[in-house]
Design a protein that fits this description.
There is one protein chain. With 216 residues, this protein is α+β, with helices and mostly antiparallel strands. The protein folds into two domains: 100 residues, no CATH class; 97 residues, SH3 type barrels, CATH 2.30.30. The chain contains seven helices and five strands; from the N terminus they run H-H-H-H-E-E-H-E-E-E-H-H. A five-stranded antiparallel sheet has the order 4-3-2-1-5. A hairpin with a 6-residue loop joins strand 3 and strand 4. The longest helix has 38 residues. The radius of gyration is 24 Å and the shape is flat. It starts with a helix and ends in a 7-residue tail after the last helix. The mean pLDDT is 78. InterPro entries: COV1-like (IPR007462). Keywords: Membrane, Transmembrane, Transmembrane helix. This is DUF502 domain-containing protein.
């Protein structure tokens, strides 16, 4: 009985929570769209019309940002608002997080690395940028220092440390899979399976490419 309930909860809970989260997001955006429709006195609409309106507006804004005059105007407005300390802190954090979501067409600076600890163990970290800020490098001893993020399990927070590049071990592991591994403290079976599958494919390819032994 206990195992059956546990198995049902384990399988249903992620699906239910995900659907609830996306449904809540849909309702919120739909409500925002209906507020815009009410402004132009189009209140007799179906459920989802507000969501469609918001999606269309976001798409149009994406097209506008491809034009230099609009992008320049938005950049100027952004610089003016960034003069306010509180807005700068909140907006800057949200913008940086949103920047992590847009990875297509950009060099992927976020690399997975291992850092050896004093007790002989290793910690999974992420190179978030290839260079550290100049005020920090000026204060640190000579060497090539890079900012490395150590993700804390079960939360988005983490600790950023400056580590010498020569002390890093780069890992052939995608940022997304390694992040999932860290966030779930290694419980995520998907990230582990992805790594094992990749190793198996590499091993199979190396065996195929290896020259066959000559008959004696």
């Amino acid at each position: 009985m206990k195992n059956t309930l546990s198995r049902g909860l384990t399988n249903l809970l992620p699906m239910v929570l995900s659907l609830w989260l996306f449904w809540s997001l849909f309702i919120s955006l739909d409500g925002l769209g209906h507020l815009l429709l009410d402004i132009v006195e189009l209140d007799n609409t179906f459920v989802g019309a507000g969501f469609i309106l918001v999606a269309v507006l976001v798409f149009i804004s994406g097209l506008l940002f491809s034009f230099s005059p609009f992008a320049w105007l938005y950049g100027w407005l952004e610089q003016q608002l960034m003069k306010f300390p509180l807005f700068k802190s909140v907006y800057g954090s949200i913008r940086d997080i949103a920047g992590l979501m847009k990875r297509d067409g950009k060099p992927k600076n976020q690399k997975t690395v291992l850092i050896k600890q004093a007790n002989g163990g290793y910690v999974v970290g992420f190179i978030m940028n290839q260079t550290a800020p100049k005020p920090l490098t000026d204060a640190l001893p000579e060497g090539e220092w890079v900012p490395v993020l150590f993700q804390l399990s079960y939360q988005m927070a983490g600790v950023t440390s400056l580590v010498k590049r020569e002390d890093l071990i780069e890992v052939d592991w995608s940022f997304e899979d390694a992040m999932r591994f860290n966030l779930t403290a290694g419980i995520s079976a998907k990230s582990i399976t992805a790594v094992n599958d990749k190793k198996a494919i590499k091993t199979a390819n190396s065996e195929q490419d290896a020259p066959a032994d000559k008959p004696q």
